[in-house]
Specification:
Keywords: Repeat. It comes from Sphagnum jensenii. This is Pentatricopeptide repeat-containing protein. It holds the Pfam family PPR_2. This protein has about 525 residues and is mainly alpha-helical. Among the domains are: about 1-105, Serine Threonine Protein Phosphatase 5, Tetratricopeptide repeat (Alpha Horseshoe), CATH 1.25.40; about 255-355, Serine Threonine Protein Phosphatase 5, Tetratricopeptide repeat (Alpha Horseshoe), CATH 1.25.40; about 360-410, no CATH class; about 430-518, Serine Threonine Protein Phosphatase 5, Tetratricopeptide repeat. It is about 75% helix and about 0% strand. The chain is built from 31 helices and no strands. It has helices spanning about 5-20, 25-40, 45-60, 60-75, 80-90, 95-105, 110-120, 125-135, 145-155, 160-170, 175-185, 190-205, 210-220, 225-240, 245-250, 260-270, 275-285, 295-305, 310-320, 330-340, 345-355, 360-370, 375-385, 395-405, 410-420, 430-440, 445-455, 460-475, 480-490, 495-510, 515. Mean pLDDT is about 80; it is low at about 1-10 and about 510-518.
């Protein structure tokens, strides 16, 4: 028989085998396979795949082993290796599956996932987690199906910490939404826990449209009344900037718990509605709900955002009443609130009373000094930070350089800027350069500020030019101001602030010709 005719016949047989598999008629398919062999037809890789699927569905491991021998003799094992792993795994023989897996020249995400799913079915959760770790060590990126298997394994062995780590991985790779879509394709019915995880992923990615789509599905599945789901929806809407939707969800809830109230308080504050956040506290207490440290952090942040010192002091009284003043997060928020409300003395008192400090405590206090122009106190505070061996980062140096700028400490600022890289190995960012340009410009060192901009290791940001332009306005340097204005408007042609600054310079100098210089 001519080779072309053999191929044609093989193709016809494969199509017939596949049709039986799709129809779930596995016994008939196996009978047809035997007839094909009796007719002298040699199966190829495509032919063996539906046969392996039939063995898998029938859990016919002995027949599967016979087919495997034929596959090896025919030289097609590398073509159907994933089908073999899947067949052995689903038939409960992970030893055989592992032997096939180990013979593979390279393993891809599909083969790793087949092994993981197999161990999940066999109830070997610990083995799943070992494989997952090995897979990542090999540089193979997990897909949605992999994550479903690993999460099931975490649940089976009650590995909560590992489950949280995997959840974080899912969020970091934006795989959470794909995972949900994969579950839908596999017709896995989502439960409230599933929805909470996916809604939280939308929060992390600020995916408002997807969050709204999920909300619709939650309603269809009848889970909106679940308090955990409802709370996650409030948090998602608030973080995505849709406080109106968060309010609707909150108002539709039959009952609220402390998490519901905290989500609304924090949400209102983060969306710029500080006063609304503060109004929620008496409502919450009328429902018999007592605030916790998270509540107080949200309320203090709201006070700081609207600079309402009186309300901040009232919240402080309640913090003392409920015994939360020693809570590290609450104390840090108190420092921040007092500093932003203009009372650096009370901020210092809270800091001094704290039984312990973390890097946030030190940095918030430093920011307070810088914000109010207390340069020398800020530098003394920075020395204490160094003595306490607190981890110093780029934010710390932004505060230090800002303090030097406000206090006009040029030499000290230059020293700190140099020490940032030389001593602390922190690369200067655009924020640090803005601080230095502002420092030099405020002190009247205009040319040095411009020279510094030219030495930046990256393209100057508009904020850097604006810092120098601001100094030009202070010193009425019309010539340099005109040159810098061109730079600002070249980088950002629609920059309204750039035009406003030009107008200010024009007013100060009395001779600014906007049309001639821009």
């Amino acid at each position: 028989m001519a080779p072309g005719i053999i191929q044609l016949h093989s193709f016809s047989w494969t199509r017939r085998l596949t049709r039986y598999v799709k129809a779930g008629q596995y016994e008939k398919m196996m009978e047809l396979f035997q007839q094909m062999q009796q007719a002298g037809m040699s199966p190829n890789g495509f032919t063996f795949l539906p046969v392996l699927n039939a063995c898998t569905s029938l859990r016919a491991i002995e027949e599967g082993r016979c087919v495997h021998e034929e596959i090896i003799q025919s030289g097609y094992e590398s073509d159907v290796v994933v089908g073999l792993i899947d067949m052995y795994a689903k038939c409960g023989s992970m030893e055989d599956a592992h032997r096939v897996f180990n013979r593979m020249p390279t393993q891809n995400v599909i083969s790793w996932t087949s092994m993981i799913q197999g161990y999940v079915r066999c109830g070997e959760g610990k083995r799943v987690l070992e494989l997952f770790w090995q897979m990542q060590q090999e540089g193979v990126e997990p897909n949605c199906v992999t994550f479903i298997g690993v999460l099931n394994a975490c649940a089976s062995v009650a590995a909560l910490d590992k489950g949280r780590h995997v959840h974080q991985q899912i969020i970091q790779t934006d795989k959470a939404l794909e995972l949900f879509q994969q579950m839908q394709r596999e017709r896995v019915k989502p439960n409230p826990v599933t929805f909470v995880g996916i809604v939280n992923a939308c929060s992390s990615m600020l995916a408002l449209d997807m969050g709204r789509h999920l909300h619709e599905q939650i309603i269809k599945c009848g889970h909106e009344s679940n308090i955990f789901v409802a709370n996650s929806l409030i948090d998602m809407y608030a973080k995505c900037g849709s406080i109106e939707d968060a309010e609707k969800e909150f108002n539709n809830m039959p009952t609220h718990d402390l998490v519901s109230w905290n989500a609304m308080i924090i949400g209102q504050g983060s969306c710029g509605h500080g006063l609304k956040a503060l109004e929620l506290l008496p409502q919450m207490q009328q429902e018999g709900m007592e605030p916790n440290p998270i509540t107080f952090v949200g309320l203090l942040n709201a006070c700081a955002s609207v600079a309402t010192l009186e309300k901040g002091r009232h919240i402080h009284e309640q913090i003392i009443q409920f015994g939360c003043e020693d809570n590290l997060f609450v104390a840090n928020s108190l420092i921040d609130m007092y500093a932003k409300c203009g009372n650096i003395e009370d901020a210092q008192r809270v800091f001094n009373r704290m039984p312990m400090h973390n890097v946030v405590s030190w940095t918030v206090m430093l920011q307070g000094y810088a914000m109010h122009g207390h340069g020398k106190q800020a530098l003394e505070h920075f020395e204490l930070i160094c003595k306490e061996s607190v981890d110093i980062d780029h934010v710390t140096f932004v505060c230090v350089l800002s303090a030097c700028s406000y206090a006009g400490l040029v030499d000290e600022g230059i020293h700190q800027f140099d020490s940032m890289g030389l001593i602390y190995s922190i690369s200067a960012s655009a924020e640090h350069y803005v601080c230095m340009v502002d420092l030099l410009g405020r002190a009247g060192h205009m040319q040095e500020a411009e020279d510094l901009i030219k030495t930046m290791p990256f393209e100057p940001h508009v904020a850097v030019w604006k810092a120098l332009l601001g100094a030009c306005r202070i010193y009425c340097d019309v010539l340099m101001g005109g040159q810098i204005a061109k730079q600002v408007l070249e980088v950002d042609p629609g920059n309204a602030a750039g035009y406003a600054l030009l107008s200010n310079i024009n007013d100060a100098a009395g001779k600014w010709d906007l049309s001639a210089n821009v």
